[in-house]
Design goal:
Number of helices of chain A: 0
Radius of gyration of chain A: 13 Å
Oligomer: heterodimer
Order of helices and strands of chain B: EEEEEEEEEEE
Shape of chain B: globular
Largest interface: A-B, 20 and 23 residues
Distance between the termini of chain A: 41 Å
Strand content of chain A: over 45%
Largest sheet of chain A: 6 strands, mixed
Chain lengths: 113, 118
């Protein structure tokens, strides 16, 4: 069965510092991987996705993620945090390449002034 | 496009009452998903449809929950009777498979319905 693990339910960074949110997955088939962001009282919004091709994926708002098959990881990074990045971030894997997602438990990002 | 539309945005009801949540997917999308989000359990997929047909309802917690999709532009999630433990935010999402063997696999989420059962 596929699963997603997000290390760190809460992460705090200073404004301007590097953001690194960790995601590891388990999958018996080539995975499709996603990062979503949820702002307070809103639905989830897609940040970026990996399906096939280039393993370094760029998304919206300056975020990017790298698919590393050998490490079964898909960590999300941003070089310089902004106050507006404060939100909850979810990593997801599509089950067996289907439209059914398995979500991680989420990481709440706090940006300190 | 207006995005995925959910109604109501907030619902407060008493235990034992019937609750109906509504969703209008993005026009042209052929997949529709219902999720529940709680602090304790995170995001859980309840059920999803493809071309109005339920594909996987293994996440539906019990018989008190039911979902329908009578046409491509409307779906409901019903809880009858409701219980306090059903209090959560319920999200609807839709996706478009596209043509051929591949699709975007992106899910577009609505703003959610916050349900409180007292």
């Amino acid at each position: 069965a596929q699963s997603v693990t997000q290390l760190g339910s809460h992460v705090s960074v200073s404004e301007g510092a590097l953001v690194l949110l960790r995601c590891n997955y388990s999958s018996s088939v080539p995975p499709y991987l996603f990062w979503y962001v949820q702002y307070p009282n809103q639905g989830l919004q897609l940040l970026l996705k990996y399906t096939t091709g280039a393993t370094l994926v760029k998304g919206i708002n300056g975020f990017e993620a790298e698919f590393k098959k050998s490490e079964t990881s898909f960590h999300l990074t941003k070089p310089s945090a902004h106050m507006s990045d404060a939100a909850e971030y979810f990593c997801a894997v599509s089950e067996g390449g289907t439209y059914k997602y398995i979500f991680g438990t989420g990481t709440r990002l706090k940006v300190l002034a | 496009d207006a995005g995925v539309i959910q109604s109501p945005r907030h619902e407060v009801t008493e235990m034992g009452q019937e609750v109906t949540l509504r969703c209008k997917p993005i026009s042209g999308h052929d997949y529709l998903f219902w999720y529940r989000q709680t602090m304790m359990r995170g995001l859980e997929l309840l059920i999803y449809f493809n071309n109005n047909v339920p594909i996987d309802d293994s996440g539906m917690p019990e018989d008190r929950f039911s979902a329908k999709m009578p046409n491509a532009s409307f779906s409901t999630l019903k809880i009858q009777p409701s219980e306090p433990r059903d209090s959560a935010v319920y999200f609807c999402a839709s996706s478009f498979r596209g043509f051929g063997a591949s699709g975007s696999y992106e899910q577009y989420f609505g703003p959610g319905t916050r349900l409180t059962v007292t």
